[in-house]
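Progress note, project year one: complex with magnesium ion.
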Amino acid sequence: MSGIGPMYPNEKPENPYVLVSYAGHLLGNYSSRLCAGCGYGIIGHIFTRLFEDEKLDPKLYPLVLGIGCYSQMLLTVHYATQKVLSLHGRAPALATGMKMANPQMKPIIFTGDGDCLGIGGNHFIHTCRRNLDCIILIFNNSIYAMTGGQGAPTTLFGAKSTTTPYKMFENRSDGVKLALAAGATYVARTTVAHPRTFMKYFRKALKHKGTSVIELITPCVTYFGRKNLNNLGAEYLGLKGEKMDTAGKMIDWIKRNSIRVNQAKFMNEEELFNKYIIGEFRYAPDQPEYSDEYAKIQKIARGGI
Amino acid sequence: MRFMPEGKYLMMGNIAMSEGALAAGLNFFGGYPITPSTEVIEHLAARLPQVGGVCMQMEDELASINAVIGASLVGAKAMTATSGPGIALMTETISMAANLEIPFVFCDVQRNGPGTGYVTEPHHNDIGLMRFAGNGEFQVITLAPMSCQELYDLTIVAFNFAETYRCPVFIMSDAYLGHLHEVVKIPSKEKVEKMVIKREIPEDIIGKFSYKDESTGKYIIPKPPIMGTDYCPPMFLSQPHSLEGMPTPKPQIFTEMMIKKITSNIDKIALTDTYKLDDAEIIIIAYGLPVRASYRAVDLARKEGIKVGILRLITIWPFPDEKVKETVKDAKVVIVPELNYTGVIAEQVERVTNLNTPVIRIPNVCEIHHPHDILKVIKEVDK
Ligand SMILES: Cc1ncc(C[n+]2csc(CCOP(=O)(O)OP(=O)(O)O)c2C)c(N)n1
Ligand code: SF4
Ligand SMILES: [Mg+2]
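Model obtained:
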């Protein structure tokens, strides 16, 4: 992440959604603190675009952010959103309090692979278990980027990071499998290389009453790409590796390393090793939702049935 | 119904505290069971849904306190209750809430420590933790009730302090007090409603969220903003904020603000009480349960002609420096009976008196003081 963030005073914002971003609204131009080539720019942009197009009411869709590089999306998301930057890993717990104190709300949670599946794993599991009406977006860049590129619970086998200087050898945690096991009712995974799919999933999550978990595979060029080769995850194919030091190379690799869920059905475990399976995994719109169920409890407590 | 009918009830301390919170307008409780505070969540699990509120048993204390902060952010009056190991886990979020100036109330039903300790015994060993809960420099308010009645009354005061000063407010209870059964007088609904400060959106400053008084340019504590309304800043960041409420790279002003909002209002926050102090040469400074044994000890000593009195600290943090200094300036000796070994408050008294007056500790751990323990010391120093 760079210092104050680049600004482009002389360039005309070529994109109509730039001016509704927080920084764009304030400064009349685009500003971001993310590295060139970071996938978070795409995500922030899509969020802003949907927020504007769907005319979401900021009072009903508060944004709760965990701690990671994506916290800097504060500047790039829609200016009207009411945002709270929570603590590392605790965003789902904070959102639970918000939702339950004001059940009309539907919190949207920005969290990272380290944030959600590492330090905040317990809150994530229990939010899914309750089927609390909220949207959890997990940004999986396979690394702890904000702190300088340490290994994450999601880091792929064999990948290099500052805390796995030789190679990552631990088993990887899978956000989608965890969400499914914990009981989230809408679970999907896609990548920033498939922005239209993400928009589709996100729209669906907005209409879904219950916990929606969307994991997004996103590139961290600075800390993951520069250290790793683009044959990662497919070394056995005998591909010659090349450093993924540009956004293009990383997006390319992400596309190659992602397998559609219906394709994955015909592949064995070995073939799927270190791959990302993308697609929709569960959509169960009629499951009981926590705040609805609690309202029933309130009725019983007041002497109703 | 939110308010219990006016009258006298035999109540357990933890329940009196819960009822006080309901009377103060509590509508969200997030907690995790831990002895000796568990009766609070059990009671509120039944009571809160009756009044349209929410009581959630969270997955751990980290989640409890974060849910409480989330609820408070959207306008609920929120609290949690726990004991030593729980507050230890919660410190990170307490610090964040202090930074964001989100009001919440925290009941610490203290038990013996360190570690798991002896879980059913009273031990005032979290006092330091309450004062310094979390990273960073900020001030908290801690109230020390000594009876079930006060657990009810002071909880209402605690909620009002939280709304006014927007800082973490602790109610210091303990295993003994929390489980004590006593008669509690519940006042009428009208009387309680008059006392309670409501969470409301100020009419005149909708949309203008600022810590600055426009006319004087000085720091004020505005009403807490509410997410999901127009009275909300563009973002809540637990980073230093300026007088305008925006992130600032100059934390100096912010830190000063955080400290001064409490210290400059100390006369309103630091509640004390006195007993037979007028001609006293020996002064007992006490808080919480040991105050009760001290009353009896003073009465017995007075019968024997010993001039002894009590300064009772109802608020222990912020420490009422001036009041203590003023009270003990002519004293021969100060006695501080405490339910801990170190004498955390005794240390404060020594600091305030510059060690000019001898301070005698009566430490006691996991066992409440007997009046005769205190009387014995009074007699010894009177020789
Ligand atoms: C309690 C706590 N521990 C550690 C940190 C330091 N920290 C900040 S961000 C971060 C990693 C974030 O990783 P991830 O969620 O994957 O986000 P990314 O930076 O990759 O976008 C860590 C360890 C912290 N802020 N708080
Ligand atoms: S995730 Fe990586 S590329 Fe993106 S801002 Fe952080 S360090 Fe830079
Ligand atoms: Mg990450």
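Residues A 67-70, 88, 112-115, 139, 141, 143-147, 152 surround thiamine diphosphate (ligand 1) (CB under 6 Å).
Strands of chain A lie at 63-65, 83-85, 108-112, 134-140, 186-191, 211-217, 258-260, 276-283.
No further modelling is planned for this target in the current period.
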